Amino acid sequence: MDVMIFMFKSLGKMTYVYRWIILALWGIASFLLILYAFKLPDVLSGDGFEMKGSYAKVQKIAKEEFNLPNNSVIVLFEKEEKVKEEAFRQFILKKLESVQNVEGLVSLISPYDQEGQLKGSVAFAVLGFDREFNDMGDILNELKMKLKSEDGIHIRLTGPALINEDMNKASQEDLKKAEMIGIPIALIVLLIAFGSFVAASVPIVIGLLAVGCSMGTLYFIGQQKELSIFTLNIVPMIGLALGIDFALLFISRFREELKSRDVKEAIVVTAQTAGRAILFSALCVILGLASMLVIDVEIFKTVAISGAVIVIFSLVIALTFLPALLSVIGRNINKLQVLEIKGSGEGVWHRFSKFVMNRAGILSLISFGILLFCSIPISNMKLSIPDATALPKEYDTRIAYEIYEKEFLGENHSEVLMIVRTKENDILEKESLRQLENLLQDLKKEEIVASVDSIFSIMGDLHYQQLYMLLHNDETKKKIAPFINKLVKGNQTIFTVHLNVDFDSEEAKEFVKRWEKNDGQIEVLLGGLPKFNQEIHDEISENFKYSLLIVFVSTFIILVLAFRSIVIPLKAIVMNIMSLMASFGLLVWIFQEGHFGFEPVPAIALMIPVFVFGVVFGLSMDYEVFLLSKIQEIYLKTNDNDRATIEGLSSTSRVITFAALIMIIVTGAFAFTGIVPVKQMGLGIALAIFIDATVVRLLLVPSLMKLMGDINWWAPKFLKKLQRANVFHEY
């Protein structure tokens, strides 16, 4: 422990002595990194819901062996009543003719080539491209130029590449909107906290610097590894909140030390105290983020990597750049006073603490009741993978998707792509065809199977013997050869299974799990949205428990080392879990049930519970430690649990309240943005922090400290011996 004290003391001295060099180095580094930060959107692609599995394998086979397109663009045509049918037809054909030479186009299915693509005044065409998401930019721009609406006929484009492009665009707009809301309000809160414009401005600078440097670094990481477009929201959300909070804690202690010390001594002491607290805070958040790595889905890896980068930059800037800057500012930190701060408010908190302690039993029951009541809606939580409906309502991509879904897919419809392989090398041999027909008949017996497209349906519903005869007749063989060649490659063929349930229904998930098999005669690989959804859900549900285990065990160990107690870490973990459950319940109530002016949505984005848990568990544990560290410090001096709790709560409450308020404002600002999952994530984190900072920290912690008395500090003898060496005494 002495080593850590010495390390932070040395750090404080170094940042003071070499303050100008440190500022210069950070100035150069940040300037270069921020230049590349503006390029980060160019290297982001996809929603991050990619993983290894049957879906990815089928996609690869479909592309490489069956020449199915890599990306599809749906062109939606909608005519007004005044437009005649023939004029509508000629318009569609003319527009589709104009895109025939677009680079990368490998297929074009017109409404007049295939049944079911024209319904009254609405029609759609499907354009297939052999390009990846990142290579579709110029192609999409060309399509938008050539496929423009004209008088009486509207054209809208949608599809994965366009949704990805609009998600990227909306993310950038959301970032600007969140910053315009969050930063000014955060500045006002900091002015109330410090009274000085100089002191209030520094945390904002620290937060923006951390975000800019992190985004610049992620640009280079994005060159080597695919990063989700949600990185644009994750980094500013976590970075601004952490950067401002770290600076708030550091500056608060620095200003206190300046009352009795010179600038150099104040920097050294602040580094020894607040610096250690910031290190612990960063460690807690990184552990929460790192727990996501056990889930083998790219978006969680993106969040873990992006989050780790922003936490590390926030930490390093807070421990080097910030003390160097404060060394230069010195006593001018209190300049430009705009509010007079009269005392720290400890008297109010002292009276409140005594009020809680005197009613510990009833208030603990009320607190538990509030948390349990808020958790009730969680039983109705439905999780789904974000699609075009995650975009703002006014986006053409979303409008087109919703029209296409309503007019041509219906509410209960999904498709499963099956790659079927037989043991024989030639799937068109009679025995192989018999096996395929048996598979087909078994599929049709399923209640949720509406129809199946296969080689048996190219000329009506053929029996395997009829198909075999057609394939061995020279005249018919030539007629059906183009269709057979599309659907058959060696010993494998494609079945397209149409289900009469949604892709994210339990029935669809059970179907795709049941039908993937290899019995030695026939191997069936499944793809399509139902399989994609099932694999993602299973990966999260199967591995999230390991994420929880990593966070719980690592947090428990750290807290045991910090407090030399077994009871306090267990209690802190349980309270954190309860506050998170309450925030998830409120999230369901607000978004799924549509309260507080939010439009009801069918489901919460699949990644939100994992994100909120990973980020918030570390942050809320951070506040818990600030409070409990002070309580323990006083308890070790007085051996009076009640006095330690009252004084600990009263002396830490002001700074922790402002820190929590900053976190709520910065993350909560994202609730007013356009992308639904980003709204849910921002509000989810803000709610969790709010519950933790009010119900848990103000009521539950002191109540339970009172009720449990000296039991709070129980520990085995070997831990007791080390108790007085605790390094986490802060305030």
From TrEMBL:
Pfam families: MMPL (PF03176). Gene3D superfamilies: Multidrug efflux transporter AcrB transmembrane domain (1.20.1640.10). The keyword Mitochondrion does not apply. The keyword Acyltransferase does not apply. It is a multi-pass membrane protein. GO terms for cellular component: plasma membrane. The chain crosses the membrane at residues 20-38, 185-210, 230-252, 273-295, 307-329, 360-378, 546-566, 573-591, 603-621, 655-675, 681-700. Residues 204-328 form the SSD domain. Keywords: Cell membrane, Membrane, Transmembrane, Transmembrane helix. It is found in: Cell membrane. InterPro entries: MMPL_dom (IPR004869), Mycobact_MmpL (IPR050545), SSD (IPR000731). This is MMPL family transporter. It comes from Ureibacillus thermophilus. The lineage of its organism: Bacteria, Bacillati, Bacillota, Bacilli, Bacillales.
